[in-house]
Design a protein that fits this description.
The chain contains three helices and 30 strands. The protein is mainly beta. Strands 3-30-29-28 form a four-stranded antiparallel sheet, with no helix packed on it. It has a four-stranded antiparallel sheet with strand order 4-5-6-7, with no helix packed on it. β1 and β2 form a beta hairpin. It is elongated, with a radius of gyration of 32 Å. It starts with 7 loop residues before the first strand and ends with a strand. 36% of the residues are buried.
């Protein structure tokens, strides 16, 4: 083994010692000057450090690259947490359900002027009644909120008579943008606002199921709120567990909280673009879909906001699948499933003025290029997604595989654009508990049932 001798350098290749000379005293081309020897020793030390570092990395447990993928990584986490994966037969259940759907008209408002159309609806599963917004095209600026009590079933399908409908509130001149029933039996209706009438938030309490007389669904107590400064109201969402209500506007989110005898405005959350879609992910966390294609989260506990993902177009709908996943619908034929734990971009070469969309778990082959008012819903029980299209049809997709499913019930187009689509149990008492797909298009409401 070579020994270190002061003033000499040992060349391992030549296996000899060479005297280290000052640069001015060394012969031309000599590699054993002080400067050259220093460079050689530095290079040797660097190679040694790199080799030791590589050896340490080989001994470490490395994170799999698959964990960064939204599909494969999620499967790994499910396995680590001991969750039971969906079986192959479970995945096929959605196909069977979609294929065997039968379609019937359950409410026909065409006895009114032929230009009347239903734009939004909400189903009260406790009473079996349906609440809907009706637009009269003959009289511009005539929008009504109406309830229809349930009738006895017809061949297993729900049925409503148009001559038993009752008006819930006076007509207004502004289009209805959302209609929801919360767990505390609060009916929320929002209107867009126009040049003649400002936007509004209409709140009313629905009657208890034990007191329902088959006619009147509301208790007669109403409250109308009007946002200031010509603010447009695009959507609303109710909490799944309490009386909290979120209102999506042109300036952000207005949060309302139900009290013993009233509804109080709690917070106003500013966002940089119109809020077109809302969904409560938990009692305190709200997901907001914006016109600028972003999906942002707001936490009521800390008043914190965060940009969570970027869709490929303006967001028109958000539906929660589970604790981590959401389905986002938008224009430009965009319908995607995202995992909120993964925010990787689909474009690795990010440019300074370009923000690529978030990589989805599934990108469903949807058909809607420009309409903001088409219906959309998700049902985790059947594992299906229903989305209306610009050719007046409804497409059915498998939530678990990303495939479009064949459904003979929707081969025939609707008479108008389906502006409201909802998976629902029509009634908890008077009807069976099977899940229906309810669609409002033009002047009729149709129920699709297996």
């Amino acid at each position: 083994m070579e020994q270190s001798i002061p003033g000499y350098f040992y060349d391992k290749e030549k296996k000899k010692y060479f005297k280290i000379l000052p640069h001015h005293a060394a012969p031309a081309g000599s590699q054993y000057t002080k400067e050259n020897v220093k460079k050689l020793k530095d290079g040797e030390r660097k190679r040694k450090r790199d080799g030791e570092h590589a050896a340490r990395l080989q001994r470490r447990v490395q994170r799999s690259k698959a964990m960064g993928h939204p599909i494969v990584g999620a499967l790994g986490l499910e396995r680590e947490q001991g969750r039971i994966p969906v079986s192959g037969s479970g995945l096929r259940w959605g196909e069977v359900y979609a294929r065997e759907l039968d379609r019937r008209v359950i409410l026909d408002m065409q006895c009114l002027p032929s230009t009347a159309s239903l734009t939004r609806f909400a189903i009260d599963s406790q009473t079996g009644a349906i609440v809907f917004a009706l637009k009269n095209h003959l009289n511009e600026g005539d929008y009504n909120l109406i309830t229809a009590p349930p009738e006895p079933l017809r061949e297993g399908f729900s049925y409503f008579k148009s001559n038993r409908c009752r008006q819930v509130m006076h007509s207004n001149s502004s289009p209805t943008t959302s209609l929801n029933i919360g767990p505390t039996r609060t009916l929320v209706q929002t209107s867009l606002g126009d040049a003649t009438e400002s936007s509004s938030i209409h709140l009313t309490k629905l009657i208890d199921r034990t007191l329902y007389d088959g006619i009147w669904i509301d208790v007669g107590v109403h409250m109308i709120l009007r946002p200031p400064n010509q603010t447009s109201v695009f959507t609303s969402a109710t909490s799944k567990v309490d009386g909290d209500i979120a209102i999506g506007t042109s300036s952000g989110i207005n949060l309302l909280q139900e009290t013993t005898s009233n509804w109080d405005e709690q917070q106003t959350v500013d966002f940089p673009s119109d809020v077109l879609a809302l969904e409560f992910l938990s009692p305190t966390i709200i997901a907001a879909g914006l016109r600028d294609s972003t999906v942002r989260l707001y936490d009521q506990r800390s008043a914190g906001k965060a940009l969570r993902l970027r869709h490929s177009s303006s967001v028109t709908g958000i539906k929660q699948v589970d604790e981590f996943r959401v389905v986002v619908c938008g224009i430009k034929s965009s319908l995607r499933l995202y995992d909120l734990r993964y925010q990787s971009s689909g474009n690795s070469s990010r440019k300074r003025n370009h923000s690529p969309s978030t990589l989805p778990v599934y990108d469903y082959p949807h058909n809607n290029e420009y309409r903001l008012d088409l219906g959309f819903d998700v049902d985790t029980e059947t594992g299906l997604i229903a989305a209306a299209t610009e050719d007046k049809r409804v497409q059915i997709f498998s939530l678990h595989t990303g495939e479009r499913l064949a459904s003979p019930a929707f081969q025939k187009p609707f008479q108008d654009f389906p502006t409201a689509v909802q998976f629902a149990t029509m009634s908890e008492e008077k009807r069976d508990d099977s899940k229906s797909l309810v669609v409002a298009a033009g002047g009729v409401v149709e129920e699709c049932k297996w």
